[in-house]
Write a structure and sequence with these properties.
The protein contains eight helices and no strands. It has 123 residues and is an all-alpha fold. The chain has one domain. The longest helix has 23 residues. The radius of gyration is 21 Å and the shape is elongated.
């Protein structure tokens, strides 16, 4: 094939011209995730949340939104499991992150609408 016969310098120029577009939904999802994480981090640092929210209380809000259809008992049990996982884990990185370990994981699985709902609830 002629493609394989081209010199590397020409192939490199061709590859630089190829642009792969990303779906708009993916881009909006990434922006929403980034906005939500930055919102939580910035306001925790500045202690602007009403009633002095900490990371574990924010995680409880997230679980309340994430598990809308589940009972309050299930949400409480899930919260206790997540907290004990962090406290009893041997991985120092997970222990250092604390509730943010689960906040990042849960927010990444939430929809854009659920993230907006969370930021509105934390106001």
């Amino acid at each position: 094939m002629i493609w394989e016969q081209l010199p590397d310098c020409i192939l490199e120029k061709i590859y630089k011209q190829i642009i792969i577009s990303q779906p708009t939904n993916l881009l909006n999802d990434i922006k929403s995730y980034n906005y939500t994480i930055n919102y939580i981090n910035d306001n925790l640092k500045l202690n602007k949340f009403v009633s002095g929210h900490d990371e574990w209380l924010i995680l409880f809000y997230i679980l309340d939104i994430y598990y809308k259809t589940q009972s309050p008992e299930y949400k409480t049990k899930k919260f206790i499991e997540l907290e004990s996982f962090v406290q009893n884990n041997n991985n120092l990185s997970i222990r250092y992150q604390g509730g943010f370990y689960w906040i990042n994981r849960c927010i990444s699985k939430m929809s854009i609408i659920e993230r907006d709902e969370l930021t509105n609830e934390l106001l």
